[in-house]
Amino acid sequence: MATLSVKPGQRYNVSDWETSNRLMSDTAINKQMISQEVRQEAQALRNETNIKTYWDKSDTCRRLRDRIYDVTRWKENLASCAQEVDKEMEALTLMKEELERTLASTTLPLDVAAECLTLRERRRGGELVSDPVEAELKKEVEVIDGIQRTLQQRISRAFEQLCLLQEIRHQLTNDLQNKMEALDVDNTCLSLTETSSEISLKPNPTRVLSGSTTPQQWEQFSRYNVSRALEEMEASLQLREDMTLTKGQALNELEAQRVATDFALRKRSHHLQQACDELEWQRKTTQDEIAQLEQDIHGLEEDLRAKTAPLKLAHTRLEHRTTRPGADLCRDEVQFGLVEEVKQLEATIEALKQKLAQAQHSLQALLQHQASMGEDLSRKLHALSLEQRSQETRQRLTAAAQQELTASAIVPLTNSSGRHALELL
């Protein structure tokens, strides 16, 4: 009978086998329990993480909406402030241009005053006097120079203020542009979902970029821009009020000085006219007096010539009576009468000669004074013509003032760049 070949090996007891089976069963139960615990913990973790993820996403969306609201609010504030800055720049530019026109309008009064002073320097002789007209004209030149300096200072200050407003406007627009870009980014982030095609994992997304600011710094930056803009607009408003006051004062001073100068010029012209009329009257009366004096001199000369014949007669009679002979050469009444007659005639002739010389001297004095009055009248008439030319020259001021008043009724609302409204960049 054949025998089976059996591979030699270790043999276990039944008890060992049963023990092994129990151990295997117990181990399975233990592993199952551990697995159940893991599954329960995994489910709890899934539920917890799902809820956490959902609420974190919801919280992020809420924060994004809050951030969008804050950025939008500041964007509106910045945009409103920028528009106010534009309006203030427009108003300040218009006021600056008004002052520039006012400054340009002072050129004509200055030229007129200088021309009048030059005209009046052409007066001759005693008419070249330092009168109130000259004082008022010089004062007018000083007033215009002072007004020009004041206006130029205001214009320069307005230019500087416009530069400051332009600078803050640039800061506002930059901040506003940043806010708009930030809004676009946050709105894009808010619109993204788990199913969006453009989402992906990024390398080191939690890094902190250089130049990052805190919310307090962010708000303080925009608040500073708005606050500075308000300060500059307040300064610009005060400057515009000062410029308006300066312009009014300048025009009032110009008008007051123009009236004072015109009054002094009219008064001087009136006095000159009175002096010319008086001198003309004196020339006429002097001419009449010369004519009468010449007639009297002619009469004196005729009387003087008429006294020669009686004197010759008396001399001849006395000479003839010296030829009487002897005792008839008597100093009788006839002799005394002839001697007295000669003396009287000689005295009369001497008196007539003296009076004739006095009359001729007076005539020469009248003629010389008449010539002097003619020269003086010529100078006065020349001075009067210069005063009248000065008055005609100053009429240009009245015409220019009327034209400026008509032109100022319609002022185009344009700034220095020619735009009717400043655009927000």
UniProtKB/TrEMBL annotation:
Cellular localisation: Cytoplasm, Cytoskeleton, Cilium axoneme
Q: Which residues form a coiled coil?
A: 276-303, 335-369
- Protein's GO biological process: cilium assembly; cilium movement involved in cell motility
Q: Which GO terms describe its cellular component?
A: axoneme; microtubule cytoskeleton; nucleus
Keyword annotations: Cell projection, Cilium, Coiled coil, Cytoplasm, Flagellum
| InterPro entries in the record | Tektin-like, Tektins
Q: Which domain of life is it from?
A: Eukaryota
Write down a Pfam family by its short name.
Tektin
Chief location of this protein within or outside the cell: cytoplasm
Instruction: Name the family the entry cites.
Output: Belongs to the tektin family.
The protein, known as: Tektin
